[in-house]
Amino acid sequence: MERTSDLRNLLKRKGELFSEELGIDVERDPFKWLIASILFGGRISVNIAKQTYRVYEDRGLVTPEAIDSAWHHTLVKAHGEGGYTRYDGITADYMKAISQRLLNEYGGNVTKLDEQSDSPEELENKLELFQGIGPITTRIFLRELRGVWQNADPKLTDIEVKAARDLGIISDTGHPTRSLKEFWKKNKVEGYDIRNLEAVLVRHGLEIRRKGS
Predict the structure, then answer these.
(1) In whole angstroms, what is the distance from residue 90 CA to residue 52 CA?
(2) The model's pTM
């Protein structure tokens, strides 16, 4: 990464937040982003995950109450309509279990996980206590809440690290997440924040993966 103009161009082309692409305001509707993050976290293509989230939207399955009251078959059918067939049944189980736990323990308010945490580690641990939410889904979810939630500060995923190194943003030495933050602090581009840079890394990393690099 040699010039600010290069970074601005990258951000313009690849820096849209995935939540924004789906029409989700993460500050107002973090549960919608949690649904999408669970779908993105599966071993399935990004496009299929996005299509499936849009089916959830179309069917009004975007609150813990709606998912909790929906028939299991309704969720499976939604996954099939979106093309998310590989894990349709088990993901339906996860969505039901997550919604039920949110309702029972947090009054259906996912923001309370952050409010009741004292550190990024505690927040991540709380998320990973939910059936079906592992480290990758947690990082996907919290990545776009960085700077929005007090304790949202996930480490970079492997795909982001590989992309950042490929773009010359970070080196092979040092702590990747810390190095990315230092890079952004020195090279901020007006109109964007570090979440946009992370979105660039995810998209670039996916391109590297598709090319088999």
Answers:
(1) 15
(2) 0.94
Q: Report the distance separating Cα 169 and Cα 178, nearest Å.
A: 12
Q: How many residues does the chain have?
A: 213
Question: What is the percentage of the chain residues whose pLDDT exceeds 70?
Answer: 97
Is residue 164 domain-shared with residue 106, that is, in the same domain?
Answer: no
Give the separation between CA 155 and CA 142, rounded to whole angstroms.
10
- Quote the CA–CA distance of 102 and 168 in Å, as a whole number: 41
Q: Is the sign of the CA dihedral 144, 10, 135, 88 positive or negative? A: positive
Residue 146: what residue type?
Answer: R
The pLDDT score that the predictor gives to residue 3 is 54
Domain span at residue 189 reads: 4-17+156-211
Give the residue among 213, 207, 209, 198 at the shortest CA–CA distance from 155: 198
Q: How many domains does the structure of the chain reveal?
A: 2
